[in-house]
Automatic annotation (TrEMBL):
It is found in: Cytoplasm. The gene is mnmG. SUPFAM superfamilies: FAD/NAD(P)-binding domain (SSF51905). It comes from the Bacteria. InterPro entries: FAD/NAD-bd_sf, GIDA_C_N, MnmG, MnmG-rel, MnmG-rel_CS, MnmG_C, MnmG_C_subdom, MnmG_C_subdom_sf. NAD-binding protein involved in the addition of a carboxymethylaminomethyl (cmnm) group at the wobble position (U34) of certain tRNAs, forming tRNA-cmnm(5)s(2)U34. Keywords: Cytoplasm, FAD, Flavoprotein, NAD, tRNA processing. This is tRNA uridine 5-carboxymethylaminomethyl modification enzyme MnmG.
Length: 625
């Protein structure tokens, strides 16, 4: 049998869900193929979304009309804003979600998206004709034809799990691996390699001594992921808990190292350096006598708990004995041990910035297949791949986000320009313009761009316009309202800030670190009246956005000037203009890397590791600049 679609998305993880929803909402007849419809957007590891830099990505996905933020808000059982002690460029939302409700909510979204259909099956082969992908063949011997295909295979490509010396083929515990695609793509000249990730033990809450742990409550304020005023937390909010390993735990773990796949040669691929397994921690940080662990709920109505910080591939009995040496877990019962998993990925420098492969037209990769890790990084790539798959089918310019426009832009540019030598995770430090990429203003940066594309809907665009108008009105009021010392000095001194020697504009007071708009409103009735005009459903969000713009305006303007200068190099296109091998004045390394990456612009060339400033100057001279 044969069926025809515009876009086929293979894999229903976080990348696949966003890709399929984006393509369908833009108008493409879209088919989402998954091996298990009951595991859509499965949170394979920690049932949490967001975190440092990752939370910014989720807000960007939402600002463009994606669904990760909406689904997370609906299924959150704990919410926190990380890095509050730092400036707003570092604030990062994070939510613990109910794993089962998260799947249920995503499936509801997909099943009610026009132009989107689902098929439960495995994909074993791509249909490729004249260097262009034309569809897929499945394990049931069904042929689906399409104008574009997006592969989002997660950890399933030749997945192999490790628990001590025990090896199990699969993409996730109790789920089969996907075979055939890697071998086909390698035969077509696409380079593949292996990576490793892992997950911790799952614990039965009934066996935990919570009185011997520190409670970690969530926050209950206006912050959330989605910019929509219809998105709210609906479930009961739960606590997490913390405890520590000890020297006896470490002794037991060391006993198991000869049987550890990480140290006995069983695993040869590279794992995530920033999220090491517990056995890696005790080897790398041998001087540490304890490591912090976070016990996190898997759902509102389940006893299953996730032990963050205890990822392991050690033998089951070693994991269990080590846990029992922690006082809170002395009577522990577990649902399953931690395990490591190896899987295939493809060097992302083989992709263009729209996530289309350079070798095969209309074939897109998104998620862990590109060497990334994390639901958020996958979702951001999936959204961009789904948009561009639709564009390739219906016409238009590629949709590419700049490094000064979004963390998603930083992520994709890093992947296609630098490649990966370990599972890639987004950090705020990777973004040179992080003051411009704050979590509070992703809608200001991206919603109009998405609306013009046709993805963000009319209501979302209306909310953006309303927010911008009210935010700017507040800033205008502060810039023009005069404050006199005799009316405010007593209040200023009571708040621990210096009195005024002469009158000033309200804006100047907002800049003081001890003050904010709410404190000033208690002293200035006219400001309180102005704040009361702000839309009630999003009042705190809009006031916060206005205050951040005022307090950090100098930093924001300076960083924007730097970004604008760099963007001049982004506008100097060099793709297809040079035979790099013939430019002898370039270093040998530069010639090799420029040939392999084939950068789009001078700016991208400057970000390739090993390309020196002198190499860039040579290219600029040859361009007549």
């Amino acid at each position: 049998m044969r069926f025809d679609y515009d876009v086929i998305v293979v894999g229903a993880g976080h990348a696949g869900c966003e890709a399929a929803a984006a393509a369908a909402n833009l108008g493409s007849r879209t088919l989402l193929i998954t091996m298990d419809m009951n595991k859509i957007a499965q949170m394979s590891c920690n049932p949490a979304v967001g975190g440092i830099a990752k939370g910014q990505i989720v807000r960007e996905i939402d600002a463009m009309g994606g669904f990760m933020g909406i689904v997370t808000d609906r299924t959150a059982i704990q919410f926190r804003m990380l890095n509050r002690s730092k400036g707003p460029a570092m604030w990062s939302p994070r939510a613990q979600s109910d794993r089962a409700r998260f799947i249920e909510a995503w499936r509801h979204v997909l099943e009610n998206t026009p132009n989107l259909w689902m098929w439960q099956d495995s994909v074993n082969e791509l249909i490729i004709e004249n260097g262009r992908v034309c569809g897929v063949k499945t394990g049931m011997q069904v042929e689906f034809r399409a104008g574009a295909v997006v592969l989002t295979n997660g950890t399933f490509l030749n997945g192999l799990m490790h628990i001590g010396r025990t090896q199990i083929r699969g993409g996730r515990i109790s789920e089969p691996a996907s075979t055939g695609l890697t071998e086909q793509l390698v035969s077509l000249g696409i380079q593949s390699a292996r990576m490793k990730t892992g997950t911790p033990v799952r614990i039965d809450a009934r066996s935990v001594h919570f009185d011997e742990m520190a409670e970690q409550p969530g926050e209950d304020d206006f912050h959330k992921f989605s910019y929509l005023d219809t998105s709210h937390r609906e479930l009961k909010q739960l606590c997490c808990w913390t405890c520590f390993t000890n020297e006896r735990v470490h002794e037991i773990l060391r006993e198991g190292l000869p049987d550890s796949p990480l140290y006995n040669g069983q695993i040869k691929s590279i794992g995530p350096r920033y999220c090491p397994s517990i056995e890696t921690k005790i080897v790398t940080f041998a001087d540490k006598t304890q490591h912090q662990l976070f016990l996190e709920p898997e759902g509102e109505n389940t006893h299953e708990l996730y032990l963050n910080g205890f990822s392991s591939s050690l033998p089951l009995q070693i994991q269990l004995r080590a846990l029992q040496a922690i006082p809170a877990f002395r009577d522990v019962q577990i649902y399953r041990p931690g395990y490591a998993i190896e899987y295939d990925f493809f060097d992302p420098t083989q992709l263009n910035h729209n996530l289309e492969t350079k070798q095969i037209k209309n074939l897109f990769f998104a998620g862990q297949i590109n060497g990334t890790t994390g639901y958020e990084e996958a979702g951001g790539q999936g959204l961009v791949a789904g948009i561009n798959a639709h564009i390739n089918c219906h016409g238009g310019n590629p949709f590419v986000l700049g490094r000064d426009e979004a963390y998603i832009g930083v992520l994709i540019d890093d992947l296609v320009t630098k490649g990966v030598d370990e599972p890639y995770r987004m950090f705020t430090s990777r973004a040179e313009y992080r003051i411009l990429l704050r979590q509070d203003d992703a809608d200001m940066r991206l919603t109009e761009k998405s609306y013009q594309l046709g993805l963000a809907n009319e209501y979302r665009y209306h909310l953006l316009q309303e927010k911008k108008e009210q935010r700017d009105q507040l800033i205008h009021f502060c810039e023009n309202y005069s404050v006199k010392p005799q009316y405010i000095n007593a209040g200023l001194e009571s708040l621990g800030t210096a009195p005024l020697a002469h009158g000033c504009k309200l804006y100047d007071l907002v800049l003081r670190p001890q003050l904010d708009l709410y404190k000033l409103a208690d002293l200035i009735p006219a400001l309180k009246a102005e704040l009361d005009k702000v839309s009630l459903s999003r009042k705190e969000e809009i006031i916060e956005a206005a205050e951040i713009l005022m307090k950090y305006s100098g930093y924001i303007k300076r960083e924007q000037m730097i970004a604008d200068k760099i963007n001049r190099l982004e506008n100097i296109r060099i793709k297809g203009k040079f035979d790099y091998n013939s430019i002898q004045s370039l270093s040998t390394e530069a010639r090799q890397k420029l040939c392999r990456i084939d950068p789009e612009t001078i700016a991208q060339a400057s970000r390739i590791p090993g390309i020196s400033p002198s190499d860039i100057n040579i290219l600029l001279v040859l361009m007549g600049r």
